[in-house]
Amino acid sequence: MVVHIVMFKFRDENKSANIKEIAKRLNALAELIPSLKSMEVGVNFTLSDRAFDLSLYSAFESKEDLDAYAVHPEHLKVVELIKSVTLESKVVDYIL
Length: 96
Hints:
3 helices, 4 strands
């Protein structure tokens, strides 16, 4: 199994609404992308300077399935929106 984790730091403008919308759109991907085995989206509640605002944990059967997810049109739509409302993101991918 391949695990894909991404953390996002959002811009201050419309932050709460943007986090809610991105979480909704990310969660919708589970029904739209066949290679996506499972997904969890979490909204941060920690008030630390080190904290990011939202995290995504997703699992795939193989690296090829992760690659298919990365270029899937529905995923790319969400990525475009994410880039417009976030300041930065961090990612880690690993094999279990």
